């Protein structure tokens, strides 16, 4: 794993408060878990991409609620923030300032190829009705990343193209202004969690598809999600030999269960010596064990809004420091700064 070999890299990632702001095990495995690993040895920046959510959520109360929920979910999962600067995108206005500048080195063709925009075109909307925020989304994401000059951007596979567009935009900026202001960030996507499949076993785990296992819901909700997880449709009775491949309960157990116990359950399952319900019960217990501390922290944070505010304030302050250094360089490189300039970051 890269995060064990590379000393003191700078790592950055973001997460959007879309859906309802709650995180599921797909987000945890695909993004948060690796981030925590990175944070043991590296300088990490993690932010809530609330400006991104505006592309789809245009309701004051919903955006507020989702953002608040996501902040609590993230903080509860992260736990120790020693090497992590945690902040909210809209608290650092340099993100939109840099986006505005990067607009000018980004060709339309690059954005037309972006998945989010292409998906919308194919599924929902005629082009005239797609808002420019969604079309521009990859430029804002490039600004999010480049402001902090990270070495690695840990994301799920669905965000890989956005990081590639970011690299493209950075190269164009450097070339246009003949100065290597932006180092090119690497996406970091471990194969085993690049796409965490949903409980239906068919599609990527996603809140909007209703195929998730939640982390902070009531136990009864999580139990229900586990019990409805896709296993082996050819197995009618617990005594029938079962298949492990494509069986989502075992896929999740590989991440959350104790290896020896999971191996033994697999052997029994293949021989028809353990029921689906027993295996699912073990998955449920393993999830509760994995997230026990985070669930307790979630309750603690929910009861302490001042503590949360302080974390965000400190995070924004640190993010400001780094982002303003980059913006000073960008203003100077582009010629926005001149002999009459009075504004200085
Ligand atoms: P978002 O909020 O959709 O997802 C957050 C992170 O979770 C990953 N993820 C998954 N990984 C594996 N399997 C899944 N089923 C799964 N579902 C979600 C996503 O890949 C992502 O890493 N545009 C970004 C947020 C963003 C950002 C950035 C990320 C804004 N600016 C700058 C990195 C750097 C987004 O909407 O992710």
Q: How would you sum up the global shape?
A: elongated
Q: What summary fits the major beta sheet? A: 3 strands, parallel
CATH architecture of the largest domain: 3-Layer(aba) Sandwich
Which ligands occur here? tryptophanyl-5'AMP
Low-confidence stretches: none
Strand order of the biggest β-sheet: 1-2-3
How would you concisely characterize the structure shown here?
It contains 15 helices and five strands.
What do these coordinates show?
There is one protein chain. This protein folds into two domains: 10-196 and 305-334, Rossmann fold, CATH 3.40.50.620; 217-290, Tyrosyl-Transfer RNA Synthetase, CATH 1.10.240.10. Helix 5 (94-102) packs parallel to helix 15 and helix 10 runs antiparallel to helix 13 (276-290). Helix content is 53%, strand content 7%. The strands form two sheets. A three-stranded parallel beta sheet has the order 1-2-3. Strands 4-5 form a two-stranded parallel ribbon. The radius of gyration is 22 Å and the shape is elongated. The chain has helices spanning 2-5, 25-39, 50-53, 60-78, 94-102, 108-112, 115-123, 132-146, 160-176, 219-227, 248-256, 259-270, 276-290, 292-302, 305-334, and strands at residues 10-15, 43-48, 84-88, 152-154, 186-188. The protein contains 15 helices and five strands. The chain is mainly alpha-helical and 345 residues long. Bound molecules: tryptophanyl-5'AMP. The site of tryptophanyl-5'AMP has 24 residues, from strand 1, helix 2 and helix 8.
Give descriptors for this structure.
345 residues, mainly alpha, Rossmann fold, Tyrosyl-Transfer RNA Synthetase, 3-stranded parallel beta sheet, two-stranded parallel sheet, 15 helices, 5 strands, 53% helix, 7% strand, binds tryptophanyl-5'AMP
């Amino acid at each position: 794993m890269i995060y064990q070999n590379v000393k003191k890299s700078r790592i950055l990632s973001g997460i959007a408060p879309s859906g309802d702001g709650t995180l599921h095990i797909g987000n945890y495995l695909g993004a948060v878990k690796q981030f925590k690993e990175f944070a043991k040895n590296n300088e990490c920046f993690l932010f809530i991409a609330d400006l991104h959510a505006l592309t789809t959520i245009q309701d004051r109360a919903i955006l507020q609620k989702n953002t608040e929920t996501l902040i609590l979910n993230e903080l509860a999962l992260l736990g120790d923030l020693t090497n992590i600067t945690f902040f909210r995108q809209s608290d650092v206005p340099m993100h939109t300032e840099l986006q505005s500048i990067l607009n000018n080195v980004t060709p339309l063709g690059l954005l037309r190829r972006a998945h989010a925009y292409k998906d919308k075109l194919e599924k929902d909307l005629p082009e005239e009705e797609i808002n420019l925020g969604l079309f521009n989304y990859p430029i804002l994401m490039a600004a999010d990343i480049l402001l902090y000059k990270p070495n690695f951007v840990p994301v799920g596979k669905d965000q890989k193209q956005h990081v590639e567009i970011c690299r493209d935009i950075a190269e164009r900026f450097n070339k246009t202004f003949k100065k290597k202001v932006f180092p090119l960030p690497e996406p970091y996507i471990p194969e085993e969690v690049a796409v965490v499949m949903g409980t239906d076993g068919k599609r990527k785990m996603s809140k909007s598809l209703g195929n998730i296992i939640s982390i902070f819901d009531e136990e009864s909700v999580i139990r229900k999600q586990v019990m409805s997880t896709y296993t082996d449709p050819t197995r009618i009775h617990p005594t029938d030999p079962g298949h492990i491949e494509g069986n989502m309960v075992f896929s999740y157990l590989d991440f959350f269960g104790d290896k020896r116990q999971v191996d033994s359950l697999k052997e029994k399952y293949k021989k028809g010596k353990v029921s689906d319900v027993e295996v699912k019960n073990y998955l449920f217990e393993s999830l509760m064990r994995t997230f026990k501390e985070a669930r307790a922290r979630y309750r603690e944070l929910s009861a302490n809004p001042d503590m949360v505010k302080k974390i965000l304030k400190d995070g924004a302050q640190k993010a400001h420091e780094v982002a303003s250094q980059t913006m000073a360089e960008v203003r100077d490189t582009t010629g926005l700064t001149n002999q009459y300039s009075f504004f200085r970051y």
